[in-house]
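User: I'm new to structure prediction. If I give you an amino acid sequence, what do you actually give back? Let's try with this one:
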Amino acid sequence: MTDILALAPSVIRRDLHEGWSARAVAGPVPESVAGATIPATVPGCIHTDLLAAGLIDDPYLDDNEAAQRWIGLTDWTYETTFTWSADGHERHDLVFDGLDTVATVTLNGRVVLESANQHRTYRVDARAALVEGDNVLVVAFSSPVKHAGARSMEYGARPRPYPLPYEAIRKSAASFGWDWGIATATSGIWRPVRLESWSIARIAEVRVDAAPTPEGGVLRADVRVERADADRALRLAVEIDGRTAEAELATGTDAAHIEVAVPGAALWWPAGYGEQPLYDVRLALSAEDEPLDEATRRVGFRSARWDTTPDADGTPFALHVNDVPVFVKGVNWIPDDALVTRVDAARYERRLRQAQAAGINLIRIWGGGIYESDDLFRLCDELGLLTWQDFLLACAAYPEEEPLRGEIEAEARDQIVRLSAHPSLVLLCGSNENLMGFAEWGWQTALDGATWGAHYYFELFPSLVAELAPHIPYAPGSPFSPNGEGPSDDAHGSVHLWEQWNRQDWLTYRDHRPRFVAEFGWQGPATWTTLRDAVSDDPLTPESPGMIVHQKAMEGNTKLTNGLLPHFRMPRDMEGWHWAMQLNQALAVRTALEHFRSWAPLTMGAIVWQLNDCWPVTSWAAIDGAERLKPLWHALKQAFAPRIVTIQPRGDELAVVLSNDTGETWEGTLTTTRRGFDGTAIAEDAQPFSIPPRGTTTLPLRPELATPDDAAAELVVASTGDVRGLWFFAEPRDSRLAPAVLDFEVRPVDGGTEVEITARNLVRDLSLLVDKAHPDAVTEDGLFTLLPGETAVFRVRHPEPIDLPALLSERVIRTANELVAR
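Assistant: Good question. You get back a string of structure tokens that encode the predicted 3D arrangement of the chain. For your 822 residues, that looks like this:
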């Protein structure tokens, strides 16, 4: 028998990405665009085509967003010509991996497809429409804004927090605008398109599960084929790690199940828990030793489950990978660019490596964006970053009527199959905040008996996951409280904590003892360079017109002010305001994370809102829309470090909590000292400790350490080796924190400059805003608190020489100290 795995398949796949043009055909089109034929990039979108043609300005600058709303109200037609000649194959399929969104596709004047879903793939038999020689392919897009409005009238209005009815169209909700995002309402061929020619049969669907066994692992493959010839017997071969297995598909059958034992297969682990070995899987389809088609996947052997077994404290939501509990150090992910087709593999890698460098181990892909790219999941597999993908139903009541119902099922089938081979994927989640909305936001009155999406979350999605990917855990929503009183209950399941940002001080995070936090966060502006590049206001102030355009949150600036004043005084200059708000964001999130982590294993994870931005904006992100690190990123790195020491309130007392998120026992002596701001030791204690792997230990503070003589001028320092935690008895604004007095040493190092800063007095949260010295400068260190005489070392990377006086200026070197006195 011929080794079909060694032969090239006969299927021919031809990308159709060349020669496209676009034109506006209806809508409120400016004269400069009306009648113009625009070169178009595929994959791409109309905004990037208009930008490339010089017909619009950058939508991210000033208030260009408002000036470009006409784009989403316009019908656009894309067209290309390709040559074709008969090659002997029986079938010729047009395949679209993504159309955004409402499209009619014609081939040589014949309609071959009508679509209205950005989130699914389409395959159509184009045999009858193809001609020898030149073939004209046209994709006519209707206005997504108008389509959503019309469908909303048909379905009936549903509750949502934003004006445009994104729940009535299967398109990225965030493309209509969000509280951190620009409204673009794009159109275009946003993922690849190709012509596939084949005969006899092709591989239509591959689902694989790489499961650990006591001997190593077993690969289970479920494969479905599409036939052009029902009377031919087929053979399917699967290869992994040098081992093969085969199955026969008799005439009339179109599915096969194959298992391949992989003795000695190594386990795939999340970052910080072990290595990430990956195995290539190859599948080949043949008929009578004639190669027909092939497919590949890359897998890792691991098990994943979320423990929701009720216990004495309620209901946990605890991730176990390979039966080992994992404390989730997560971030929420939004599309990395509002024009998502600009995010390539290199950009995904930059962002995910920034996440990895901050100690993050899970990326939650939020349900108002997109089902993320194969590039993101591939990189997460390689880096050990766990992934959680929401189904794309967010912050709204969704109709359950046709045709929306069928579209949602079709996209879910597509995406479950596409994503389920990735070892990084540990949760598919039915919705974002929709269960909360129904229970807590007054939706039931507004719905007046109308459908809201329950069918999807509790029936459709779990049944599809059980059918197509039973090895992937599923939850109906985020937040979700299994066995609890509602969808937002500290004692049960996952919670979102937004009262702090919206109405409360961030110290009230400590009032919560949640089992798992899936969303919480605090706002801060983008880095100074990113802000100045995007907003040309003169003068630039927190309330200047461009700043307001780049602040999308309801009463965002008011909440920034209210959240700052309990801790710091309000600066009277713009750069001071900018630093104060960035620092307060970092402190709010760091405080929350340290608190949540101190309650492990009661609390088993926290996912910060959010890692990234999609444009230059004041937002909850740690990395801004120009890919620059905000101080919040340094706070994540500190709070997510493998080992941390923090001082936490426990009732009316204080305690030191040591968290050991490593695979080794942590032993040593903890020294705890109450000191004056001048460094003088007032009281001291030392005690040995031993913390098991992945363990947490709480050590109460003796009264003489926990009780200050002068709260405004004292702190507690708890340290072991180079790991320490601090507790200040008073907020900075209520303390006698003096202006920072600093000494500097600067030396060139490979790739940049090393800055050594020594404090002559107590200095809190010393940071370098290095983008002010050079727009491409980066430091992965920040937020140092130094006792008198202590030194911090910053390694500043920059691609070309940097202005040293600028690097050492007061604009760059920032501390909390200058936010205390007016």
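You can read the tokens as a compact description of the fold. Here is one thing that stands out. The CA atoms of residues 384 and 820 lie 42 Å apart.
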